[in-house]
Amino acid sequence: MNLSRGVSATKCKIITIANQKGGVGKTTTAMNLGVALARRGLRVLLVDSDPQANLTSYLGVTPGQPPYESLATLDEIYLSKRPLDAEARSRFICPTPAGVDLIAADKNLSSVEYYLFTRPDRESVLARFFMSISSKYDFILVDTPPSLNLLTLNALCGSNHVLIPVQPEFFSLEGIVKIRAAIEDIRARWNPTLSILGVVATQVSNRRKLTGEVLEMLRAELGDLFFSSLIHDSSAVTESSGHAKSVLEYDRSSRGAKDYQTLCDELLERCGITQAGITSTLMPGEVPVEATS
Ligand SMILES: Nc1ncnc2c1ncn2[C@@H]1O[C@H](COP(=O)(O)OP(=O)(O)OP(=O)(O)O)[C@@H](O)[C@H]1O
Ligand SMILES: [Mg+2]
User: Fold this and answer.
1) How far apart are the CA of 209 and the centre of ligand 1, in A?
2) Does 254 have pLDDT greater than 70?
3) What pLDDT band is residue 282 in, cutting at 50, 70 and 90?
């Protein structure tokens, strides 16, 4: 069942996916959670706010190359001197076969920080852009670089929520303490409504001896902030990025696909969006997994 009618009455949820530690699954979570939400009939925009442009590649988009010659990239929002009209804004929106829209990044995004330092409104550029487009979406998910830099600050100032992926390691708690302190600072100075939606453990491997202990520690320290859904290590997830497909499209019977759907359900619950009546998470033309060999 399509959830979009139920959601459109409420405000668009803007969620920044952040952790200053590299390789913890931020991009993978933005992609697969975004596609899982779109499969619930929700209108989803993914924003690649990382100069590495991994999310853009994961979606198979190459700005400047056919058929994306006229696609504008995120850096141009930061460089634009005046508010963008509707036609200019539409140049940034790239519909994708995965069912989500994308605002793409390329390496030019890395020079934006230098330019931003001289702007008096340096922390609120993205927030203003989001205000002009948020009525078109139920969810906007922003992927950020492994750093609490000005790009991440812009994402956090323009968001309602933060989702923090972590790898289950003993040092992961230290990273969470740091990002929580940054969020408190942002709440106090710029965005009082920013809240942590939760911390999600990714790349969980039951083969590693310490995993269970670390998960227990995270649960004990974080309480309700810790998502009960876990994203396990799944080769289908790694392979899916090489095929420029979400794991839900690449192998929807894989553990990775199931984990991201479970996380999607828990996230909807946390956002207060009822799932009563959902019967299908399939794209048009797909048959249920049970019906396939
Ligand atoms: N559940 C998973 N199972 C297996 N591999 C995974 C899983 N999640 C992520 N990976 C792999 O781990 C690597 C890092 O993931 P990802 O790029 O999402 O992290 P990141 O936090 O966005 O990194 P960065 O900080 O560099 O942006 C990638 O090669 C990805 O394919
Ligand atoms: Mg990334």
Assistant:
1) 21
2) yes
3) low
**d(CA 69, ligand 2 centre) in Å:** 24
Q: Identify the pLDDT of residue 83.
A: 86
Q: What is the pTM of this model?
A: 0.92
Q: What is the CATH number of the domain that holds 50?
A: 3.40.50.300
Residues surrounding ion ligand 2 at CB below 5 Å: 26-27, 54
CA of 125 to the centre of ligand 2 (A): 21
Of the listed ranges 74-88, 217-231, 277-291, the one predicted with least confidence? 277-291
Is the CB of 30 within 6 Å of ligand 1? Answer: no
Instruction: Identify the pLDDT of residue 207.
Output: 76
- Would you say residue 280 has pLDDT above 60? no
Q: Which residue segment(s) compose the domain that 241 sits in?
A: 4-291
Our count of domains for the chain comes to 1
- pLDDT tens readout for residues 68-124: 999 999 999 999 988 899 999 999 999 999 999 999 999 999 999 999 988 889 999
DSSP letters spanning the chain: ---HHHHHTSPPEEEEE--SSTTSSHHHHHHHHHHHHHTTT--EEEEE--TT-HHHHHTT--TTSTT-TT---HHHHHH-SS---HHHHHTT-EE-TTS-EEE---GGGGGHHHHHTT-TTTTSHHHHHHHHHGGG-SEEEEE--SS-SHHHHHHHHT-SEEEEEE-S-TTHHHHHHHHHHHHHHHHHHT-TT-EEEEEEE-SB-TTSTTHHHHHHHHHHHHGGGB-S---B--HHHHHHHHTTS-HHHH-TTSHHHHHHHHHHHHHHHHTT---TT----PPTT---GGG--
146 lines ligand 1 (CB under 6 A): yes
Atom of ligand 1 nearest to the CA of 165: 21
